[in-house]
């Protein structure tokens, strides 16, 4: 029989020696979008319509996703599986790359409502964002980091925050959320 002090010591030391549980990684995982069922995200993950950005002239998308209270940036490839009718199709989206941003808030401190300043390129996400109200829009005042989707390498690459221009429209974001959730 162990003494009380040994049992107490074991209860204090053993949890510290256990391997740390890391957050799940979704790279390579497919996500499906069906006309009848909608977007089928992994359990515990949410994405708002305003947290998604399509890269023009490509089959790539950049998403800000909240999975189990950890904000992530996903680079996805969109593939049409089947055309159902003239305005509906079944899609398969595969996660090509991801970054995790603990402590960020999807849509607020982490946003895809950004473009590259020099070329106006889409597929830019920022984290640690601070916003300034300017009429009915929010302008970026500062950010702690940024990444951009690189179509050539299919990766998210770091980008200097000085090369990013972001603008959010809270009224439009709220309208898109209402359209997504439907009438209540």
Provide a count of the helices: 2
| Rough outline | globular
Mean pLDDT: 83
Head-to-tail CA distance between termini: 61 Å
Major sheet: 7 strands, antiparallel
How many beta-strand elements? Answer: 14
User: How helix-rich are the residues, as a percent range?
Assistant: 10-25%
Residue runs with pLDDT of under 50 for 5 or more positions: 1-21
Class per helix and strand makeup:
mainly beta
Secondary-structure element string: HEEEEEEEEEEEEEEH
Give the DSSP E fraction (strand runs of 2 or more residues).
over 45%
> Cα-atom Rg, whole angstroms?
20 Å
Task: List its traits.
184 residues, mainly beta, 14 strands, globular, disordered N terminus
Descriptive notes:
The chain is mainly beta. Helices cover 14% and strands 47% of the residues. It is built from two helices and 14 strands. Strands 1, 2, 3, 4, 5, 6 and 7 form a seven-stranded antiparallel beta sheet that branches. Strands 10-11-14-8-9-12-13 form a seven-stranded antiparallel beta sheet. Strand 10 (130-134) and strand 11 form a beta hairpin. The longest helix is centred in the first third of the chain and has 14 residues, at 4-17.
């Amino acid at each position: 029989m162990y003494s009380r002090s040994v049992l107490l010591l074991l209860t204090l030391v053993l949890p510290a020696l256990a391997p740390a549980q890391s957050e799940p990684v979704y790279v390579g995982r497919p996500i499906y979008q069906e006309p009848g069922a909608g977007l089928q995200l992994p359990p515990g993950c949410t994405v708002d319509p305003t947290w998604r950005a399509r890269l023009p002239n490509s089959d790539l998308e950049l998403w800000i996703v909240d999975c189990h209270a950890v904000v992530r940036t996903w680079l996805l490839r969109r593939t049409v599986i089947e055309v159902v009718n003239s305005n509906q199709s079944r899609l398969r989206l595969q996660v090509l790359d991801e970054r995790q941003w603990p402590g960020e808030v999807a849509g607020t401190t982490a946003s895809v409502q950004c473009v590259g300043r020099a070329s106006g390129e889409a597929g830019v996400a920022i984290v640690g964002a601070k916003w300034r109200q300017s009429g009915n829009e929010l302008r970026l005042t500062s950010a702690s980091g940024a990444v951009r989707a690189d179509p050539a390498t299919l990766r998210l690459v770091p980008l200097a925050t000085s090369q990013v221009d972001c603008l959010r429209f809270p009224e439009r974001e709220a309208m898109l959320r209402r359209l997504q959730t439907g009438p209540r």
